[in-house]
Design brief:
Length: about 350
């Protein structure tokens, strides 16, 4: 699963230039028949985003008069570039990307309006199964295969290590030079004592006997606006009715996921993961559902926002704390939570 997030100032310069061009060209949803088309760019294809696929497959967007064009944009930088250049209307990506763009300066900020996941989605995998509660001190002196620097997974990982009194650079051999797609293969071939993995790789490793989940970075790092639907402020201002309908559909999907069994959720999202074994899909859904990763509503609360910035600050990736009211608009999620049952 590729959830690399935008974390480099240089990568944003082109983004902002394209955003300016898109603003001059104008934007707005395209109508398809009587429905309004909304183009979503998701940062990756992931079971982590189950409520999104439920909203499409169960027809919740169509009930709201929306036709969804869903594209996987593969990476935070590409997702944000596509959003700001007008290639998509709504991005599903980590909230830190909206902060990175804001740090570079823009007259049309990217605004978070409907949260989908509320924890980190990675797990600590060891070569041996856990014997009781995991002792984080075991990591000291070990070789740890981590995620790429600047992305939220890496920041949440380092935040957790520091929380347990472990200095990522001094207390262990931290490897961050392996390409994201090659991390599972590197660990399976013998690199590292521990690895930070996304699903479904973690569950696949357990099934294959190549590793064992011993802890959850999602549980350890706390609630975060980890993956959120966002759009340019200009788009939201121009298409408030469409954004409200979008938030309504997401809320209905969130309600459905909260109330449904693992098997029912797996059946609903199955068409999006035909190459993944069904028992692995169920295992991943159960793991995320049990730890509360799927947000019950789209509201990004202040505590989550502050926790996100604490994580970014601890990683040295935050120039200045971003104003909540500038980059978060909860009016659509709040109305959806109140009205959608």
């Amino acid at each position: 699963m590729n959830t690399r997030r935008l974390g480099r100032a240089a990568a944003l310069m082109l983004v902002l230039v394209l955003a300016t061009c898109a603003t001059l060209a104008g934007c707005g949803p395209k109508k398809s028949g009587e429905r309004v088309q909304v183009r979503i760019g998701e940062v990756t294809r992931s079971i982590f985003y189950a409520p999104e696929y439920v909203a499409v497959e169960k027809g919740f967007f169509k009930e709201q008069g929306l036709d969804i064009e869903l594209t996987t944009t593969f990476g935070g930088d590409k997702t944000m570039t596509t959003l700001l250049s007008g290639g998509i209307d709504v991005a599903l990506v980590g909230s830190e990307t909206s902060i990175y763009v804001h740090q570079q300066g823009t007259g049309d900020p990217v605004v978070n309006f409907s949260q989908l996941t509320q924890t980190d989605g990675t797990f600590l995998v060891a070569r041996k199964p856990p014997e009781g509660p995991f002792d984080w001190n075991k990591l000291k002196g070990s070789t740890f295969l981590g995620q790429r620097k600047g992305g939220m997974p890496q920041m949440a990982g380092e935040f957790t290590l520091k929380k347990h009194g472990i200095h990522p650079q001094n207390d262990l051999n931290l490897l961050q030079n392996v390409e994201f797609a090659n991390i599972p293969t590197a660990y399976a071939s013998g690199t590292g004592d521990y690895v930070q993995l996304f699903e479904p790789q973690a569950s696949m490793f357990e099934k294959q006997g190549k590793g064992h989940v011993v802890a959850s970075f999602g549980v350890e790092s706390g609630k975060l606006p980890y993956t959120v639907f966002m759009a340019k402020k200009s788009y939201i201002d121009k298409n408030a009715d469409t954004v409200q309908k979008f938030a309504n559909a997401v809320q209905k999907a969130q309600n459905w996921v909260q109330q449904s069994s693992v098997d029912d959720i797996a059946a609903a999202i199955g068409p999006y993961f035909q190459d993944t074994e069904k028992d692995i899909v169920r295992s991943v859904i159960k793991r995320y559902k049990d730890q509360g990763s799927f947000a019950a509503d789209g509201i990004v609360d202040v505590q989550e926002w502050n926790n996100l910035q604490d994580v970014m600050e601890a990683a040295g990736e935050l120039k200045k704390r971003a104003d909540f009211n500038t980059l978060v608009n909860n009016q659509f999620a709040e109305k959806a939570k109140q009205n959608v049952k």
